[in-house]
Design brief:
By secondary structure, the chain is of the alpha/beta class. The chain contains ten helices and eight strands. The chain has one domain: Divalent-metal-dependent TIM barrel enzymes (TIM Barrel, Alpha-Beta Barrel), CATH 3.20.20.
Length: 270
């Protein structure tokens, strides 16, 4: 029996329409699915309803740990910040509508004012909680600044909000040059979700991008060590398969999801 719950990040089967993604997640054996707002918007633009997504999730008995993502909130001020928050509110309402627990709050691409970002993150968390969802701070290994666990933790800590959480991801830990051992600096309650993937040895770490990710166990990262660190801090929630590979997008999405779950279990339970 696994110490964790298995989730499918719907980016892994990206071209598939959202309602089918939800059905595939359950059929492949997952108990949860992460949804992207661009998929929700596409469904609505084609005449669908937000309620369709919620009903599909409920019918399949799935949990929605996160929706993805909130942007523009960290680095902006003044009118630009107000506009960014309006879009965040729209997406928050979608997240609540589909029953999500968290929303992933992405960092800026360039150098960042951590103090201002912390103030803005506190504001974002309070806004999310007022609407019924919890924004989680994400670091991205390929951005210039907020690219390690320590960076995300600094923002959350400086915000001073007890509901602050972080998104973890083996690829981003590696790509940002950080150490998996930094997982030990967190408490279970500070971890919103653990994205699950692996990284190849080539190209060089500094050149890798999202599309270079591989199935867990197909790369060189010590994923078992990372999972043991999660166990040590008491995290027992979702491992979410997150890949961005066009070669997988061209395949049968159900088969991709099934293979992904097999690879996750082989690492987590082997």
């Amino acid at each position: 029996m696994s110490d964790f719950q298995y989730c499918l990040n719907s980016s892994t089967i990206r071209p598939t329409p959202i309602l089918r993604k939800i059905a595939i997640a359950r059929k492949a054996g997952y108990s949860a699915i992460e949804l992207w707002h661009d998929d929700i918007d596409a469904h609505i633009a084609q005449g669908g309803r937000l309620a369709d997504v919620r009903h599909a999730v409920e019918d399949q008995g799935l949990t929605v740990p996160t929706t993805i993502y909130l942007k523009g909130w960290f680095e902006t001020t003044g009118a630009a910040h107000a506009a960014a928050l309006e879009e965040c509110k729209r997406r928050m309402d979608q997240a609540v509508g589909v029953g999500a627990i968290h929303m992933i709050a992405g960092p800026p691409r360039g150098m960042a004012d951590h103090t201002q970002g912390a103030v803005n993150y506190r504001e974002l968390v309070e806004l999310g909680l007022s609407r019924g969802v919890k924004p989680a701070m994400e670091f991205l290994g390929f951005v210039e600044d907020i690219n390690t666990i320590e960076d995300a933790l600094e923002v959350v800590t400086k915000s001073g909000h007890p509901a602050g959480t972080i998104v973890l991801d083996p690829f981003h830990i590696y790509r940002g040059g950080g150490s998996p051992e930094s997982i030990a600096k967190l408490t279970a309650s500070q971890i919103a979700i653990f994205h699950f993937n692996d990284a190849p040895t080539s190209p060089a770490r500094e050149q890798q991008q999202d599309h270079d990710r591989v199935y867990p166990g197909d790369g060189h990262l010590d994923l078992k060590r990372q999972l043991n660190l999660l166990r040590q801090v008491g995290y027992k929630k979702w491992l979410s398969l997150e890949l961005f590979r066009e070669d997988l997008w061209a395949k049968d999405p159900l088969e991709v999801a099934r293979v992904g779950l097999e690879r996750m279990r082989a690492v987590a339970e082997g």
